[in-house]
Amino acid sequence: MMNTWLPLSVLLSSLLPGLIIFLLAEEQRRTRTVLNLLAAVTKLLLTAVMAWGVFQGRQYETRLPFFPKADLVLRADSFSLLFITLSAVLWFVTTIYAVGYLEGTDHRSRFFGFFSLCVASTMGIALAGNLLTFFLFYEMLTLSTYPLVIHRGTPEALRAGNVYLRYTLSGATLLLAGVVLLYSLTGSVEFTERGALGAVASHRTELVVAFVLLIAGLGVKTALVPLHGWLPVAMVAPAPVSALLHAVAVVKAGAFGITRIIYDVYGVYLVHDLGVMQPLAIVAAITILYGSVRALQQGDLKKRLAYSTVSQVAYIVLGVSLFGTVSTIGGLVHLVHQGVMKITLFFCAGNFAEELHVHRVSELRGVGRRMPLTTGAFTIAALGMIGIPPIAGFISKWYLGIGALEAHQPWMVVVLLTSSLLNAGYFLPIVYSAWFQAPREEWKPSTRGWEIGLLLLLPTVATAVLSLAAGLFAGAELSPLGWTRLITEREFRP
Amino acid sequence: MSGHDLASLAVIAALCVPLVLTVVVMIPVLRGIGMALAPWAALPALGLGLGTGASVHWKPVLLGMRLYAPDEVTRTYLLFTGILWLFSGLFARGYLREDSRRASFWGFFLATLAGNVGAVLAQDVASFYLFFAMMTFCAYGLVVHERTEAAARAGRVYIIMALLGEVLLLAAFFLTVGTRINLSLAEVPRVVAESSSREVICVLILGGFGVKVGALLLHMWLPLAHPVAPAPGSAVLSGTIIKVGVLGWLRFLPLGHASLPTLGTVCVAAGLTAAFYGVAVGLTQREAKTVLAYSSISQMGFLTLAVGLALGAPEAAPVLIGAVLVYAVHHSLAKGLLFLGTGLLPATGRKGWRGVLVLVGLTWSALEIAGAPLTSGALAKLALKSAEAAAHASEALPTLLSLAAVGSTLIMARFLERTVPKAPEQGSPGAGGMLLAWVLLLVVDTALLLWPPVGREELPHLLESKSLVSAAWPVVAGVLLTGLVWRSRRWRSWRVPEIPPGDVLWPMARVLLPGWRLLTADADREPPQQEDIGEGPPSRFARFRRASLDEFENAEEGLSQLSHVGLALLLFLGVFLLLLVR
Amino acid sequence: MNPWAVYALSGVAMFSVGLVGLFSHQHVVKRILASNIAGSGVLIVLVALARRAPSGVPDPVPHALVLTGIVVSVSSTALGVALARRMARLRADAARASEPPPGSGGEGP
Amino acid sequence: MMGGTALMAWSVALPLIGAVLSLLVGRAGVRLVAGVASVATLIASSLVAWEVSTQGVLRQQLGGWGAPLGIEWRADGLAALMLLTIAVVGPLISVHALDHLGDREDREFLPLWLFIWCALNALVLSADAFNLYVTLELTTLGAVSLIVVRRDLPGLDAGLRYLLFALPGSLCYLLGIAFLYGAYATLDVGMLAQRVQSGPVTWVAAGLVTVGLCLKTPLFPLHVWLPPTYTGAPTPVTALLSALISKGSFYVLLRLWLEVFAPVLDAEVGQLLGLLGAVAVLWGSVLALSQTQLKRVVAYSSVAQIGYMFLVFPMATSGARAGVIYLVVSHAAAKASMFVAVGNIHQAVGITELGGVQGLAYRMPFTFLAMALGGISLIGIPPSGGFIAKWLLLNESIGTQQWWWALVLLGGSLLAAAYVFRILRGSFLPLPPGVTVRSIPLGNELAPLALALIALLLGLVPWFPLDLLAVGASR
């Protein structure tokens, strides 16, 4: 009984509160907050139960009739749980952060409503048991994030929203074309370990076309070059939205989808056999370098972070598109690691903007003295992004580097290491000037006792600690790394 | 508690005490306690170096962390690392008494210590990299402690070089561990020796750690970073931190497992060149600490040379490693004394009993570095020479080493010349703590000559006349030469042209910097004003869009004419039938 | 040529004339008339088809259809004319109320 | 329990009775009578659908005469689904009309609507080609009367225009039917399907029927009457026109084409219809992008959406049939919700321009939610009925190796996204100064939302309509 209802409940735990929140009046602040947190905690608990069950080898599946031939399937396998856990945890902290961040602004009911819908879509994407279900939630995600991107309602935000839609809807169209192509080939595309297309493997041309369409469609959200244009523009959104977009929802959904396509739709051996893996890896490599170089050129903190995301998410794609276990582990684990680290960075950027009205890198001089904890969190996450141990990013880089060699692609190591250097090039100057330079003029001291409201500070610190812990205790069985190894073993098991 | 538990507890304490203290210093409320305890943080490491610990294996930590192996390298490193950090810490307590950024210093000091100790303890590749990186990045805080423009520049060079080194190391580690993900250090030399890309790994290792060691052409950061750090910082930087680079070589190169004569020869050549080059550039320096830094480069040349020999001659590797250890202990303590001395002398003044004491100590340490007879330097050189003999190195090598020792003497003389006259005659009050720490270090240094942790078998040879002579003549020659120069300057005032510290860095920077500026130019540009975005003529795309929409509108208008609808109707019917009739 | 075929063809011809009229005139009443002509043409075709064989009873069904068709056509014509009248009146009112008359689109008189 | 055949009669008779009664009762009773009639018809229609889904196709000979002489009514899955659609969408639109129109119009609107409902139900159930003509004409006449319900110039203009374009369409259709009868001596659709053969008479008849119905529906390039008519009519009437009435003629075309003509005609004719549909998608969408009047944007969107529907003809498979019917149904709900929302906006701020939506997202959240959901269905983004339809059609286009229609579908939805978000995005801007927002009745706010939710629901439980559709599907 529980095994069939649990995936659906995980989905509903953010969908229903989202719908209720829409109906709340703007002034019902307390009710809204309580509802938000209640939902987030519920989801955490459900996720924990499910994670434990899957770890024990139990199956969780909700099957709803949809089409005569295709059901809506929500299934929790180990890979989906990786993503769900990430989303559930980060949603929890982001909710707290957003409550603090948006205090006293307009249209909060709308914001939190769409916020919950956005997470519900992410849950759906993670739990989708077949390609159709995946596509449904993928589109729902596009729609529920649009109002968040244009939340501020300024002309600039609307323009960003336009760009966002233009990219994502075009991507969705390509994706749909690919999905339909596969469905017309097979009739039904269930996500299956080691691929669902074995029976039609002889249709090479169709499979390659479908693969290209799918990857191009997903590549928009993943922000693979040259489909990344929306990401830096979408920076006008409020900080919690950016955090969610970059760490959990949109970008990750794309990367998650690409992984699903490669591993659970085509099967890694088939993709390898079709000869489309290497081009994808090259695209990822180009994205990594391009994103890093562009990040160097940004003076706006959030833009710099955005380009950094472009680069970092391509690590995931690189990992899954190199043929081998180790790189796969590296790619998958980076899904989690990048999420935790990037959300920290965006929280920090939000804190700086909120407390000190600092938006540009050049204005961050001496901010370490005024906001030590935030700057500390920023430092941890930034160092992690560079890949310095023992922060989470190091683990990813370690596996990716070894994986590249395992796949006999040493040039990928060069790409990775160059990117690390470039990462250092755009993060370390910030860290330096924040800690070691004197501020241009003294900041006004905080009026609160803490450097910034606790609702903003605690999530920031928490995610920073998480990024540290994920790397430091990577060897633990239930760490992201341990979990990823479990997934990968199942995929590559002969 | 059993003895084994106690032994592993000692290992944990050596690592965790500085770590915990780092955190304590960071918390404002506990900062006072933390700073009071901080100088003693290296004590557990020192204790572990004196005793024996037990291996620790923490599977959940990082990629399965393994700490401590009871081998000679680990013990020796722990010993001198512990000693130098302990006394530097004690010295720093006095040195930084009135520094407003004390907390910052202690934080970085403790974290660097933890990294340093960890790197020595680490027994697997990932952990080693972790602690190595931790040490590297935290030492940055020591370099830029003064917050001056010079410090910032030195810090920049330091961090860039360090990052390059790390990148090379990572590549080497990837190649080494392969799909095993992580590897115990005990297996590393064998694995590297058997690896198909052995040469590449070795080059990467040599280069990667070479940055830390300050090997030839990778040494640029050293003369910049050592002088700007506060004296205790410089002491540990030059005394122990660069030795961790050598430790890396010892741990990761397939010494004793494979013969790589070409690489070995390159190393020997690079080491020898560095030995002379360091002296040559160092002699032109004006800043005392810079002189010392160049001396370090020169001294590290000897170690490079030894490692190169070991690469080429696997059978002699154990002896050479022993020699390297002897040399490392000697250089670490002696250089530490010298660096701390530069900080101490202004406080004690050169007059009075304190001044004399310090001057004597400084001279003694300088003689040690120069390798004068009956000093630890002589012991180290002796160990090195006998190991070379075991490796069947070229006949010319001992001579060259002696010549280099002349250089060492010269550079030490230069150091004393740049230090002593500048010091005030009278010291300032409150230098007692510093002096005490320094003197204690001197005592320990001397004690270690009598009871050396490694190279004990060479000790009797120290008194042989042959070695006395061979140790003495370079020093004498050096002193004479110095005297000559000294006199000549009396007659005619001439100055040595100063090569800017960092020497080859500056021409390189001139090439690289413009490129970097070009790359990051956009970041410094101020954003355009808000008004600019919406206004202005419409883009070409917008114009095209408008025009094509207008076209559609016109066409729609045409279609809307009543007669055209009739025509369309007929046409539709006609085409319909035509298709069927055809 | 069979007489019923002549009937049928002339019906088709009437339909065509009506159709052309519908699309070549702007005036509403003319167009309503044209639609009437076209409708009559169709009905003639139907009547003609009732006589299927040279001999024998004519098919009653088309007659029923024609009757129905006439009713439909009458009612639509009536509606059309009524609308046209009302529109003309409204236009006239509007023209009287404000000089010059407001520019009006459509195909009114 | 009443028999299924009687239920069919009730579903036609009830709205008629309602229409007559509501004309008789005074001003106060109109709403009550119409309400009761609507609910009763809804129940009857649902029961028909239930019967069909459980028992299969229902047939009834009117007056006891069998075909070919008599008239047959037949309810298969398609008819049942259409009955349901009309019964759900129509009343929701009329709820909105109550508060949108004036008092007098109110009294006339409801009887007229019930009358049209009766005609539409009869049309849906008819299995007789001539009966289809009659019901089609009745619908047209009712629609014209509704368009002019305000008796103002724009309304009259629109009404006449509609009438004068619908007439030639019906006449073409009638002539085609006449030819068919001449050749095959039957008007029953089922019998025609059995008897019809390829030949000049069939070709001409098919051509006349197709062209006539294309003019009424309308398909590009015969669509030019649509935008001005839709703009000139009162908004609730536009909603009815777009959502239900235009579907009537398309329904006839679909029936005849799929059951009678498709087997005997060259596939190329189907391609011609598909091509015109494709052009309509492009044409309507692009023109929707260039409009400045809110209502015209939505009207041109109808041109494009109708274009999609014609993509069924080149594919002509059961999957495509299901897809296009799904499109008809979800378009009915979605477009009705859009038009009703537009009516609300007009009522609230009195601005017909596109810019009039500025700032309204906060003032009229339900209306805009409805508009968003409706728009999503028009674009074909899940979860919405539009997506399901698009999915089915896409699948079919790939399955029948006609991938070019897939391009039309995909490209069309991008264009649709462009014009839908063109409307929506302005609503997030702050309210411009000087604009006052009149409050509108809650019913008016909720009606579009309910319609949009139906479109949404169609995307969430597609198996129900699809199962229903499969009942009695010939191929």
Automatic annotation (TrEMBL), chain B:
Record's subcellular location? Cell membrane; Membrane
Chain segments annotated as transmembrane: 6-30, 37-57, 77-96, 103-122, 128-145, 157-178, 198-222, 234-252, 258-279, 291-313, 319-344, 356-376, 396-416, 428-451, 471-487, 562-581
* Domain NADH:quinone oxidoreductase/Mrp antiporter transmembrane residue range list: 122-347
Gene Ontology CC annotation, any one: plasma membrane
Q: Which domain of life is it from?
A: Bacteria
How does the record say this protein sits in the membrane? Multi-pass membrane protein
Which InterPro entries does the annotation name?
ComplexI-like_HydComp (IPR052175), NADH_UbQ_OxRdtase (IPR003918), ND/Mrp_TM (IPR001750)
Q: Which UniProt keywords are listed?
A: Cell membrane, Membrane, Oxidoreductase, Transmembrane, Transmembrane helix
**GO biological processes:** ATP synthesis coupled electron transport
Q: Name one Pfam family in it.
A: Proton_antipo_M
Q: What protein am I looking at?
A: NADH dehydrogenase
Query: Which species is the source of this protein?
Result: Myxococcus llanfairpwllgwyngyllgogerychwyrndrobwllllantysiliogogogochensis
UniProtKB/TrEMBL annotation, chain C:
Protein name (record): Na+/H+ antiporter subunit C
Taxonomic lineage per UniProt? Bacteria, Pseudomonadati, Myxococcota, Myxococcia, Myxococcales
A UniProt-annotated Pfam family? Oxidored_q2
Family to which this protein belongs: Belongs to the CPA3 antiporters (TC 2.A.63) subunit C family.
Q: Which residues cross the membrane?
A: 6-25, 32-51, 63-84
Tell me which GO cellular component terms the UniProt record holds.
plasma membrane
The superkingdom listed in its UniProt entry is Bacteria
Bilayer topology term: Multi-pass membrane protein
List, alphabetically, the InterPro entries matched: CPA3_antiporter_subunitC, NUOK/Mnh_C1-like
In which compartments does the protein localize?
Cell membrane
Q: Which organism is it from?
A: Myxococcus llanfairpwllgwyngyllgogerychwyrndrobwllllantysiliogogogochensis
Q: Which Gene3D superfamilies match?
A: 1.10.287.3510
Task: Classify the main location.
Answer: membrane
Report keywords, A-Z. Answer: Cell membrane, Membrane, Transmembrane, Transmembrane helix
UniProtKB/TrEMBL annotation, chain D:
Task: Tell me the superkingdom of the source.
Answer: Bacteria
Q: Which UniProt keywords apply?
A: Cell membrane, Membrane, Transmembrane, Transmembrane helix
Q: Which GO terms describe its molecular function?
A: NADH dehydrogenase (ubiquinone) activity
Location within or outside the cell: Cell membrane; Membrane
| Ranges of residues in domain NADH:quinone oxidoreductase/Mrp antiporter transmembrane | 127-414
Where does this protein chiefly localize?
membrane
**InterPro entries listed in its UniProt record:** CPA3_Na-H_Antiporter_D (IPR050586), NADH_UbQ_OxRdtase (IPR003918), ND/Mrp_TM (IPR001750)
What are the GO cellular component annotations? Answer: plasma membrane
Q: What is the membrane topology listed in the Swiss-Prot or TrEMBL record?
A: Multi-pass membrane protein
TM segment ranges: 6-25, 32-50, 78-98, 110-127, 133-150, 162-183, 203-225, 237-258, 270-290, 297-317, 323-345, 366-383, 403-425, 446-466
- To which protein family does this belong? Belongs to the CPA3 antiporters (TC 2.A.63) subunit D family.
User: What is the protein name for this chain?
Assistant: Oxidoreductase
